[in-house]
Amino acid sequence: MRQGLSFEAPSVRDGDWEQMLRLFIQPDTEADRAKLVGYMEQILFGLQEFLHNHVGVTEEIGLKELALGYMDSTICFEPEKKLPEVISDIIDRIAPQAVNVSSPYFVGHMTSAIPFFMVLFKAIVAALNQNVVKVETSKVVSIVERQVTARLHRLVYGMEPDFYEKYVQSTDATLGVFTEGGTAANLTALWVARNRLLGPREGFDGVEADGLAEAYRAYDIDRCVILVSRRGHYSMRKAVGVLGLGNRNLVTIDVDGENRICLPALRRKIAEYKADPRTRILAVVGIAGATETGTVDPLRKMGELCREAGIHFHVDAAWGGPTLMSDRYRHLMDGIELADSVTIDGHKQFYMPMTCGMVYFRDPFHLDAISYHANYIIRRGSVDLGIKTLAGTREANSLILDSAIKVMGRKGYGMLIDHGIDLARKLAEEIRKRDNLQLVTAPELNILTYRFCPTPLKEALLRSCGAERTRLNEKINDININIQRIQRESGKSFVSRTAIDKGVPGGGETVVLRVVLMNPLTSLSILKEILDEQEAIYREYYSSLDLQGTGV
Amino acid sequence: MRQGLSFEAPSVRDGDWEQMLRLFIQPDTEADRAKLVGYMEQILFGLQEFLHNHVGVTEEIGLKELALGYMDSTICFEPEKKLPEVISDIIDRIAPQAVNVSSPYFVGHMTSAIPFFMVLFKAIVAALNQNVVKVETSKVVSIVERQVTARLHRLVYGMEPDFYEKYVQSTDATLGVFTEGGTAANLTALWVARNRLLGPREGFDGVEADGLAEAYRAYDIDRCVILVSRRGHYSMRKAVGVLGLGNRNLVTIDVDGENRICLPALRRKIAEYKADPRTRILAVVGIAGATETGTVDPLRKMGELCREAGIHFHVDAAWGGPTLMSDRYRHLMDGIELADSVTIDGHKQFYMPMTCGMVYFRDPFHLDAISYHANYIIRRGSVDLGIKTLAGTREANSLILDSAIKVMGRKGYGMLIDHGIDLARKLAEEIRKRDNLQLVTAPELNILTYRFCPTPLKEALLRSCGAERTRLNEKINDININIQRIQRESGKSFVSRTAIDKGVPGGGETVVLRVVLMNPLTSLSILKEILDEQEAIYREYYSSLDLQGTGV
């Protein structure tokens, strides 16, 4: 019965080997090709149409209820479904209950709509299915990866043209590596810094070979510390833990009133550790676009300080890096070129699909500190990119970035950056105008935080102190937690929430609402709608707020 | 001039914000939609047609020459190219100089053709662009990921149904995690083992918090060792290095005549380290499908040994894991269910596009040893999957695996596994029949190695000893290196080469040719063609082999 349907129903239900082979080759009849195009149209338009028409962020259904439909843990012997059914299921059942991160009303995380061509590029990369761990499975794609790596290195460091002439395709040098994401990029940077700081010396083969305990004995020290502001991304803590350094040795430095690392405090800490013969400073980390506030540390001053003290300076520009593409705002990254290593994410402000991270090194030979070889591939001296990466097998995401840069130019990416930053400033103005709201962190890039703090509460706060003030702040925190949750659950818009310690003067842990503006379809009027909805939620749930009950 | 072409030429050359927005929304006219379908057809058919017609592995052009075309390191302000040009470039310029890993003549690495629907699924994942680090950016997709994780866990461990009933959607438990690939999976397993072995005790907060040097002091030891056979993947060495344990503490155990870990030697080593109060055994690693030989270690015996000795038993089944889908061959994985943790790759024998790794844990709470939290996401007690992964942002590859399993069933994957193993056995027979060839490692799964060793040289080897034998072996190694290189460079077929120490009795480092059989389009007659080509190369270059000159 199914013979005539072989391509239409590409499953192996019939156990037919011929049918299996059909899955691995392209359709050769016009009718079969038309069906394949049909699938793709289903994906491109069915899915995209859903995502774009369904402006809301997600359907209203609780996670627990949703989970009940996904309890079966068996794998059937016979195929459970045919391909068209699986695709339809994704479009009709999964997509509506996923999160529409491409909605202009989804402004809560570092994820947004991406240009439609990114999906095409991702499909190309999957169809080519190259493995850039080695040239034997990638050839020219490894060469393209070297080129786009040099392009980004130049964007960050702007060395002389002859530097790039020499190193762009040099198999000895490595200007940077692509990673799974920012976490792996930060880990790679600190891994390099660790291995360089605790390299081989007499009677010791280096930390990579001999391990950390041996290294501390060889160097006669008790610990290594990494310094970062308290706005550092949690991946730093994780990286330090993985590397065996102990994540308590990630020392967080206080921030100033604008959420930037406090330079005098950093200087004091460096001096303190320098004076302690049992401690080494492994790295200082600057942030170029803090996850929670979008703040950029004073990179130039940090870089100078590190150079003076001979410390590895890493900049986590996972978020902010692409700001370098904007002529208007690249000055916000001033000093980034002093970094020994820089993390930039592709899936953030390069608008690539999940996932792509990168880490760049000023010195083309620093990555040698983590090189690994194997007999069957990535042989010593070879041109294989996998010698100096944390990952083995790796997707050719570099080809997506390379293609996107060609289509967009600095101009295109610059426009997106400019839009986000400009819009964030307008939103900040709007928030300042509204009595119920309080801007907590003003935007430096395209991220800001604010909170609900209606006038009577603001005034009460000013009059209060001690336990009274703590209790009031907790009350305000609760209000914000509830407003964010109710808005999220109602499914039309999404802002995120986080907690910033000392977010407001005299406050402790301050719950804030966080807006990230990267979707070019998000406009000020959409943002006003989002604020209006929040105000409506506030009125509905808190109009009868018993200010007496709160101690006011 | 370009106004009418806005969608046809989706670039921002004109600096028009409207045009930029068009990149982020789907086309709304019929004509525009047709153009988008056109692009996709270009990719699906242009690219696929090229890959399938161009049976050869790659075009003849040296890497150095190729690199000359990719020297420019600048990023243009204006877009360099329009989208259709970039796509055409990839199809016409990149693809021919990439490696056609989908060719049935490409049998050298663990990469092959993948079912065409995988490209569709990858496009879907990119279009949805969910970030499974947290439910706020993935919702139902996180739930799907939990389900497919339970499915694979059950395939590996086969616990009772009520175990899965309880844990499949439990937010407390974690049956496994998706990773970038096998390296990250192995790293995750050893990271968990490290943190569990060196957990908190009085006056010590655990290795993750306090670091390794502190941990060794608290436990009064000098080192931790990890034991694996000398056929272990190089990612083990890398993982041990990253974790700060010192990669010299990856202790390699000898193998028996069939490339399986030598159990008596393993027992001796375990006893030796157990007797040393200054050393702890962090893990024993079993291999289920060695990268170079495809061998499977005696997992059951290793598992029993580890259980008895209270040692974490990790199985690297990155390659072999999907053998569990085959009713005929799943017995080759016997004992895998005794492992504390198991690595399986999706982009290998689950035929997923690059990249997808996974690691499963028998105990649903072992992954707690590496949990990390952050304020703005993945809050303590939340259902966010990112709490227990090395990566932060993560692509929803789980959706691809889930979909593929539905379309293929165990039956479909089983057929692929069976084909590879059966074909490898036939190839082994064929090699045994040919006088110039010598089978070095017989296939257990679908990988084998062999070498050119013509009869006169074989006989001379038998008569020789000492330096004479070494010199002869080196000569044979050279021949094999050359044959593999010439065949690869001529671009039609690809087998890989590696070096196996003591590959042949009395031999030292033995260069071998390695065949990996996973492409269902590869047949015995294609393999005979590949061998014939090698024999022809041998005749052309070595017919006049001066046996006197080689000392024979």
Automatic annotation (TrEMBL), chains A, B:
The modification N6-(pyridoxal phosphate)lysine is found at K348. SUPFAM superfamilies: PLP-dependent transferases. One of its GO terms (molecular function) is pyridoxal phosphate binding. InterPro entries: Asp_decarboxylase_pyridox, PyrdxlP-dep_de-COase, PyrdxlP-dep_Trfase, PyrdxlP-dep_Trfase_major, PyrdxlP-dep_Trfase_small. It comes from the Bacteria. Belongs to the group II decarboxylase family. PANTHER family: CYSTEINE SULFINIC ACID DECARBOXYLASE, GLUTAMATE DECARBOXYLASE-RELATED. This is Putative pyridoxal-dependent aspartate 1-decarboxylase. It comes from Desulfobotulus mexicanus. The gene is panP.
